[in-house]
Amino acid sequence: MKFRTLGASDLKVSEIALGSWLTYGVGVEAKVASACVRAAFDCGINFIDTANIYGRGGAETFLGEALKGIPRTSYVLATKLYFPMTANDSGLSRTQVMKQLDASLKRLKTDYVDLYQCHRYDKGTPLEETMPALTDVVKAGKVRWIGFSEWPADKIRAAHEMAGVTRFVSSQPEYSLLERGPEAAVIPYCAKNGIGQIVFCPLAQGVLTGKYKPGHAPPADSRAKSRSMGGFFPNDYLKPAALAAIEGLRPIAAGLGLTMAQLALAWVLRLPSIASAIIGATKPEQVVENAGAAGRTIPPEALAAIEKTLAPVR
């Protein structure tokens, strides 16, 4: 495993992170989920990402049990808040920052999280309330560093320019070979201002692994067919043109000695400002395969071939 520094923080995170969206505490049976966590640590992954909303606390509760007995300083733990936990509990108000953090810590069975992230931007709460609240939980020792997910560039800038508050060190956008939006403004601004990227869905929910074949129905055990995990599946990625283009990546991956998943992850990690790519493994062997992308470099000619291959669906 290879490690990178997360933005302007002192956190050294593995290039591959283990996520828990739709999987642990929700769509993956507990024994298999525990095996995935063990496989992650065996591969050198030290970065675990979750959120209070995942399974309405189910993912955090699972991780609280799964991480028992593992030295707390040996891994980096991140969680988030924003989405509704109850009809009256959502957003980034001071009250919610305090309440949701304490609830997350209790479920995770820990005194602190290394990274606390605003899961989305809260239009109903001014930054002048959110940022001081986040600053206070850092000062209290409950949080080491703060970050955000899927914020617009102008709000990132506004938070960064506020005086007297703790600054964000991480951004968590959706980013992959099929989702390039953050390249326009978010990644460049963050790279200049000490904010590292932790990208989610780098495999486009499994589409970039090549498991979905043109002209074939999705595999029965795939996320696209799962009742518990398929609710957010991007069906546009299953269109014949998209699947045909993705199949064109297969010889490129083979020529580099990589699997399709490893190619997609190595492509994301080609940018030095991207500290880690979050995987959502449902089987231990997927964790092992994905971890194999760490430290892999894609040469310029292969990068150009990838761009040309995916041009029809970009």
Task: Write up what this structure looks like.
There is one protein chain. The protein is an alpha/beta fold. The chain has a single domain (3-203, 270-296), classed as NADP-dependent oxidoreductase domain (TIM Barrel, Alpha-Beta Barrel). The chain has 11 helices and 10 strands. The protein has helices at 30-42, 58-66, 94-108, 127-139, 153-160, 186-192, 240-247, 250-255, 260-268, 284-291, 300-310, and strands spanning 3-5, 12-14, 16-18, 47-49, 76-81, 113-118, 143-148, 168-171, 196-199, 274-279. The strands form 2 sheets. It has an 8-stranded parallel beta sheet, with helices on one face. The relative contact order is 0.15.
Provide a compact summary of the structure.
Helix content is 34%, strand content 14%. The chain has 314 residues and is α/β, with parallel strands linked by helices.
Which tags fit this structure?
314 residues, alpha/beta, TIM Barrel, eight-stranded parallel beta sheet, two-stranded antiparallel ribbon, 11 helices, globular
Stretches where pLDDT is under 50 for at least 5 consecutive residues are none
Distance between the termini: 31 Å
Mean pLDDT, nearest integer? 94
**Major sheet size, sense and barrel closure:** 8 strands, parallel
Helical region count?
Answer: 11
**What's the CATH superfamily, by name?**
NADP-dependent oxidoreductase domain
Give the secondary structure arrangement, pairings included.
Elements: E1 3-5, E2 12-14, E3 16-18, H1 30-42, E4 47-49, H2 58-66, E5 76-81, H3 94-108, E6 113-118, H4 127-139, E7 143-148, H5 153-160, E8 168-171, H6 186-192, E9 196-199, H7 240-247, H8 250-255, H9 260-268, E10 274-279, H10 284-291, H11 300-310
Parallel strand pairs: 3-10, 4-5, 5-6, 6-7, 7-8, 8-9, 9-10
Antiparallel strand pairs: 1-2
